[in-house]
Amino acid sequence: xxxxxxxRCASSGQCALAAPEVFAQDEExxxxxxxxxxxxGDRVRRATTGCPTQAIRSD
Length: 59
Known about the structure:
By secondary structure, the protein is α+β, with helices and mostly antiparallel strands. It has a single domain (2-58), classed as Alpha-Beta Plaits (2-Layer Sandwich), CATH 3.30.70.20. The chain contains two helices and four strands; from the N terminus they run E-H-E-E-H-E. It has helices spanning 14-18, 42-50; strands spanning 2-4, 23-25, 32-34, 56-58. The protein is globular and about 30 Å long. The protein starts with a strand and ends with a strand. Keywords: 3Fe-4S, Electron transport, Iron, Iron-sulfur, Metal-binding, Transport.
């Protein structure tokens, strides 16, 4: 299960680049939008570890 903390998000977009099928960026504020909370795999791990503010958690 993936969770995101939109308040912590710095709008860098690294998650959307790493896993565009799981993450997007809000068009108004640029913060992370979670598209699939049940996704897993290497791309999700890259997005999680690549988040500069650690706003993404994956179990």
